[in-house]
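== Protein entry: sequence and backbone fold ==
=== Local backbone shapes as whole numbers ===
==== Amino acids and backbone structure tokens ====
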Amino acid sequence: MEYDNFVDGITPKAMDSLRLPLAFDEAAHATALDIDAFLKQDERPAAALDAKVAAYRDVTLTHLLSHHGKQSFDTNLFRWPPSLYIPKSAKASDYWISPAPDDHRYGLDWTSPASATANRASRNDGTLFSFSQLDNQNARSAQSSESGLGIFYQPPMTLGVIDFQPHVDCSGTLRTLLEFFPELAAGYVEVKAQLLLAAWQQIPGGFDLLGFRQFDVASSGRRDQTFGPELRPFMTSFSGPSLSAPFVVQRGRTYLLGVVNRVSVISTLTSNTGKPLPAISNTLLRVWGSMNCVVPQIDVVTKRIDIP
């Protein structure tokens, strides 16, 4: 390679690194001819052919590896995105090219109330399940149950506003059946599936609720005895601004940012005279709802920095 004396700090050695690999490799060509010559023979022992093919393979591979480029880059440019949070047991390589810091994985899960034993929440895989049903012994009482998970967030700015944006996939079923004739009833029932985004400040011994935002996922609508039995499945997904809530945050404080799966049963049922209904069999009165959710990732986007 011809070149002038090095300029601008580019040395002859550096210029040599620009040499491109040869398209024609003599050793590879020779072993290829050896294979071709062997194949012309009438008697071709398989072991002998394998040896010649192996020689060709090794030579060409050596040629390729000797010119294999080695990309160098600053790993700091590929650090885990500060806005991205994932389940505790999730595979970080499914999201990014570098490992996820421990403080960027889901930190807490919970269910409520204590009587909702069917509910499940897992910070490990980001799943939530809530189930709620009408109390047939007290048909006018409302019922609600929740499952939630959250991340712990420590703001890098003195004062600012963040946007809490979980990605959530939901599916569930809403059931209404009111066929307890000849008993007549006034009022209605309604089953709702909702997602809530909330922020708490961590304080000694617990959490202080700062605010929340509610999103309707599915509803049975108001149903009374004039409606026939209904079993309504639903499925939907949310991400980005379609499921987000802004919160004011300050440096030096720790926040729990959570997404909650809530299923509620609302009832105003009474007898046609306004008195409480007697206990009714589940074969005649069934009102319930369930919702499964998967939260594969959570984004915390900085909307505004008031004081850096």
Summary: The longest strand covers residues 285-307. Residues 12-66 form one domain. The CA atoms of residues 134 and 287 lie 5 Å apart.
